[in-house]
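--- STAGE predict ---
source: upstream dedup step, 1 unique chain passed
mode: sequence only
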Amino acid sequence: MDEIPIAMEEKKMETEKRDKIAEGVSSSGVYKTPFSFIILLEINLAAIPVILVNLWYYSGLYYLITGIKIFIFTPEANWWFWLLLPLNIYGNIFLFFLTTTLISLLFFKILNKMHPPQEGRFKKGSRDWKYMHRRFWTAYFPIWLARALPFPWADIIVYRLFGVKIGKSVVAYEGYIDPLLIEIGDSTMTSLHICIFSHLLYHDEIYIRKVTVGNQCVIGPHSILSPGTIIEDGAVLGATSFTKPNQLLKGGLIWVGSPATTSFPISDVENDS
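--- STAGE serialize ---
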């Protein structure tokens, strides 16, 4: 009878041990600590030019409704002002995206100037940990906005502005790519919900290494590239697979698994079809 409580206690201890490990690991690469201040600052600073640019227009609409001028420079609005409203709202979305990107990029470059990013393994609380944390959240909001816009080239532009080296004819949408120490070759395609991380958090340490993806590669949906990964030209990472830190995927092969340790030639797939 005593064996049952002992077994239950051992199972409970094992569960607590796994939970403790899970608390220290960020499998997504995302910092668990909130950093809303930077995002709120970016939103407020980006909203100022948007509001200033539109004061004359919205004061004109208010004059049409009430006949009262809010400002001296309020225009003598006409009925066709209402026809411009949908275009105005749509244009303001892109204006907000542009100002947010420029403001975030300024902060990002200041952070890089104060403490340039470097590869290595660093303790929690170190300068490298803190500045990687700040860079991550500084670039996060404009990257999110770029992915939300209905243009596949918007995120490519933002990634390049923030330091990602992306080649020609690259498809990078509906996924997340770290803004630093990432290099992607020509004619490479990333699929839905992929993640490419140049940093990895584990307990009280951060591991930062460059990730290199070659030419004409394919990253399957729901896949994760860990720091230090090197993918040679023509390699394919299968869906729902992930790489180990510093893993090399040789070119001309399809790699699958968690981690991606199983491979087979692409020619075999072509022959089977």
